[in-house]
Specification:
- The protein has about 400 residues and is of the alpha+beta class.
- It is built from 12 helices and 19 strands.
- Strands 13-12-9-10-11-14-18-16 form an 8-stranded antiparallel β-sheet, with helices on both faces. Strands 3-2-1-4 form a 4-stranded parallel β-sheet, sandwiched between helices.
- It is globular.
Length: about 400
């Protein structure tokens, strides 16, 4: 069978490699001739993947059987258009638009009582608003161009800064603890794969610098509530036959979906952290599903793990060796180093973390332990091993 990958950047490599391992012929498309996934596939095409007509023409000619979706942003709508035009399984164009347009996403879920906050198109609508509030681009994903507003004065300054060349959404900031979700919609049924508690920088950036896995055996009621809530959300958005990731805010028994998209998470989560923690490689299971092989998105067991990125600030004078890190962890005895990938060099001048792009290239480490507090402290202890001027 032939599988298409629309968007062939570095984060597509895991999906492409899994497809090839499982015997699929892979056709990759990207607008960048140097995109890593083009050479990793059987055939690569350099085209503007935001051009739905051209993309459909290429994949129709190639007679692909299904589309694999790596971590991508707004061009998810192209995936939907291809599936509709070629009658392929997966997300449709209408659902993809809802996943990529934050304003329409809000309106659709608000109708069903699944997203309760005030939300407006900045500069085009007016209404009551409580602070703190969030100003963010209407389209796109991640933490690009997000402003955390404490009052009207900061709102005015932010609106002046962004101008009117791009649509922005203004909405109330919801109170609670922020989580990330990896999941899948099998036909029309949502399956939670992994719930992750976020480690965030303080406002205004609130950038994720790490994730802690939630173990269902320890927090069964929370996991049940998230499963139930996201089942309603995915049904409302008419999602089917897709992988997904979501950001949630949870306060006591109230769950609020910040964003959700029908594609897997990036930042070494779906390809590494989730398989290690939950034992489910979402890309591999989706490929098996599409090719008639036995598959399962339900985790048998979830381990207590943490992935932590190097949220350091200043000039780097010294970097610990892996052996030094392991020796430090041995002092506590209940935390183990599972993965270590450090791309920082002595002399690097690290800026404060404001976006995912400013952080992810530095690398990460993954720890396994027994308690959240122990993992958090071990992460801080490891960062203190770096020499920072």
């Amino acid at each position: 069978m032939k599988a298409a990958v629309i968007g062939a950047g570095t984060e597509s490599l895991h999906t492409i490699h899994k497809a090839r391992e499982l015997g699929q012929e892979v056709i990759a498309l990207d607008g960048n001739p140097a995109a890593a996934g083009l050479s990793a596939s059987h055939r690569g095409f350099v085209i503007d993947i935001s051009d739905e007509t051209k993309t459909i023409e290429v994949l129709d000619r190639e007679q692909v059987d299904f589309v694999l979706t790596p971590p991508i942003g707004r061009v998810l709508t192209t995936v939907g258009a291809v599936n509709d035009a070629l009658h392929l399984p997966g997300i449709g164009k209408e659902a993809a638009v809802l996943c990529t347009d934050k304003y329409l996403f809000h309106l659709k879920l608000q109708e069903k009582g699944l997203r309760n906050c005030r939300c407006y198109l900045a500069g085009k609508e007016q209404g009551e608003l409580s602070y703190p509030a969030i100003l963010k681009p209407r389209f796109g994903s991640g933490s690009r161009g997000i402003f955390f507003l404490r009052d009207q004065a900061e709102q005015k300054q932010a609106l002046q800064a962004v101008g009117d060349e791009e649509d922005y959404v203004l909405e109330e900031a919801v109170q609670g603890v922020e989580y990330g979700v990896d999941g899948a919609v099998d036909k029309e049924q949502f399956q939670l794969v992994l719930l992750r508690k976020k480690l965030l920088t303080p406002p205004p950036a609130r950038q994720a610098v790490g994730y802690l896995s939630v173990v269902p055996a320890e927090e069964a009621e929370l996991v049940r509530q998230v499963q139930e809530y996201l089942s309603k959300v995915t049904q409302t958005l008419k999602l089917r036959d897709c992988l997904l990731h979501a950001d949630l805010m949870i306060y006591e028994k109230e769950i609020f979906v910040i964003e959700l998209s029908a594609r897997p998470s990036g930042h070494n989560l779906h390809n590494l952290f989730t398989p290690l923690t939950a034992g489910v490689d979402m890309a591999a299971e989706y490929i098996k599903c599409r090719t008639g092989q036995p598959y399962c998105f339900r985790p048998d067991k979830t381990s207590k793990m943490m992935i932590r990125y190097f949220d350091l600030f200043g000039e780097v004078s010294a970097i610990p060796e892996r052996e030094t890190v392991e020796k430090k962890l041995a002092e506590s005895g209940d935390v183990q180093l599972i993965r270590w990938e450090c791309n920082i060099s002595p002399g690097d001048k690290l800026e404060p973390v404001t976006t995912g792009h400013s952080l992810m290239g530095r690398g990460f480490f993954i720890l396994e332990g027994t308690f959240e507090e122990g993992l958090r402290q071990a992460g801080e202890d490891i960062l203190e091993l770096f020499g920072i001027i």
